[in-house]
Design a protein that fits this description.
homodimer; about 200 residues; 10 helices; globular
Amino acid sequence: MIDFYFDFVSPFGYFASLRIEALARRHNLGLRWHPILVGVTVMKVMGLPPLFDIPLKGDYVKREVARYQDLFKIALARDPAKPPVTALAASRAMALLSRIDHDAAVQFAHAAYAAYWQEEADLNQPATVAAIAISAGVSASEIDRICGDAAKTALREEMDEAVAKGVFGSPFFLIDGEPFFGVDKLELIEMWLLRER
Amino acid sequence: MIDFYFDFVSPFGYFASLRIEALARRHNLGLRWHPILVGVTVMKVMGLPPLFDIPLKGDYVKREVARYQDLFKIALARDPAKPPVTALAASRAMALLSRIDHDAAVQFAHAAYAAYWQEEADLNQPATVAAIAISAGVSASEIDRICGDAAKTALREEMDEAVAKGVFGSPFFLIDGEPFFGVDKLELIEMWLLRER
């Protein structure tokens, strides 16, 4: 089983979202998607500044994002160096929707990621989130719920569980409990899955 | 040309030191080794705490080191979670030696890495560093120099240049100027070198 943790505002999370399903299929592994807010784990739990604000590393990461687009032929419309707009509403919706109907939640996650990175959508606006959910096939009767208080609780619980399991960044993968941080681990994960045991 | 930056106390730098020469040969690239002190870049320049002290990430990195040993069949005798003993003397010697005779310096680097990680040698002791240098074929007449003031200056210059180029961690690779941080980039580097241009 692969548990895939991601933040909608993380470009590397977006890149991983485009590759993780093929990896899971190649290895016959189940896949569960978990929204997290990296601002909470990184800043509050770890006590670190935002990635782009760290001297040397901030500039390096910008270059990494550009190179990844180039190598994997994925162009981002949104400039990753622009300060992120928190995706709180979309993350809450995702947390609740994944409990109700995980397949629909995955469709929603793909649509929300594309909206943020390709159309610069504001994933903190309930109306935007509702429109994305409807376009992803969520029934109109569910919309109120995934934009309401139950969704707030679902995300809080999801985050607490993630931190308890040691998850701290985006993307982060737990594969039968083994932790892997970063989109650059996808190649290592393949090696690890194919290792002699 | 590959510029390879490493800290002797970095387990991932050690792992990279065992793989980088084969990568350079496969791609017909020159290779230059550069000692750096990550304590200086990470703590002084970037303002971050030591990696193992960061909540969640510290524990994760310990697990990553264990997994890497397993996957690549490299066993470390020294516990990577033990606080590092700065490798100042060895790094100074390496900085000067690499200007005098780069091939000898690479032999020295391999020997010093093995001494630290396999025999828990103290790379901040000039006598230990001198013994490693002699075992790596450095002539006795050079020893005083690589343990003296010129070596101090050489390391300071090496570090200033590295930071000016955006280098901040170990291992770090500049390949014709393109920056790559972390041993997990070795697979990505292969893809990048083989990309369509």
